[in-house]
Amino acid sequence: MDKATQPTETLNDGKHVDILMIHALLESLLTIFSTMVNLRIQPGIPVPKQDKIAKGEVTGLMGMETEQAKGSVALSFTLPAIRKISAKLIGEEIGVIGDEARDMTGELTNMLVGGAKRIMAEKGFEFDMQSPQLLMGKGHEIMHRYPGQTVLLPIKVEKEEFYMELNFI
């Protein structure tokens, strides 16, 4: 390959921090589920989200900011998904969407973003993370802070699904 056809940009060039953050979040989520939860997850096909209505019944939403990118990530769990996860993580099934489901969602959201922060630091990028906002109830709205397109990523855990929303500018 001659010099004229070699790519001049890389993901580590500081121009693609949003893509690096999304990859770090996915890597963090896979690590959490394979090591701490001990459940295999399968990310689905990401699609643009057209509304603000949560697909799950309990959601953790957290903002993330660097000089080069700003955005937020949400984890939204259905009751069947949180039941599967809680059975593995704490040894008992959470039966209803309430305080325990909210607390577990907050912990998972913190672990997700904390893991991504470590991965990004290893690549030379630091970001600030906010405290998670926790939302509950069927049909609650997830209000991402920035005007970028929200991407919805369904994630299978055994036969159930939960959702990750990504919104970066």
User: How many domain modules?
Assistant: 1
Indicate the radius of gyration in whole angstroms. Answer: 17 Å
Could you name the ranges where pLDDT drops below 50 across 5 or more consecutive residues? 1-15
What's the rounded overall pLDDT mean? 88
H-E order: HEEEEHHEEEE
Helix content: 25-40%
The CATH level-2 architecture is identified as: 3-Layer(aba) Sandwich
Number of helices: 3
Write down the overall geometry: globular
Largest sheet: 8 strands, antiparallel
Q: Give the tally of β-strands.
A: 8
- Level-1 CATH class name: Alpha Beta
Q: The CATH topology, please?
A: Chemotaxis protein chec
Task: Write up this protein.
Helix 1 (17-37) crosses helix 3. The relative contact order is 0.26. Strands 1, 2, 3, 4, 5, 6, 7 and 8 form an 8-stranded antiparallel β-sheet that branches. It is globular and about 40 Å long. It contains 3 helices and 8 strands. Helices cover 33% and strands 25% of the residues. It has one domain: CheC-like (Chemotaxis protein chec, 3-Layer(aba) Sandwich), CATH 3.40.1550. A hairpin with a 2-residue loop joins strand 7 and strand 8 (160-168). It is an alpha+beta fold and 169 residues long. It starts with 16 loop residues before the first helix and ends with a strand.
List the helices and strands and how they pair.
Elements (H helix, E strand, L loop, with lengths): L16 H21 L3 E3 L3 E2 L9 E8 L4 E8 L1 H11 L9 H24 L5 E2 L3 E4 L14 E7 L2 E9 L1
Antiparallel strand pairs: 1-7, 2-7, 3-4, 3-5, 3-6, 4-8, 7-8
Helix pairs in contact: 1-3
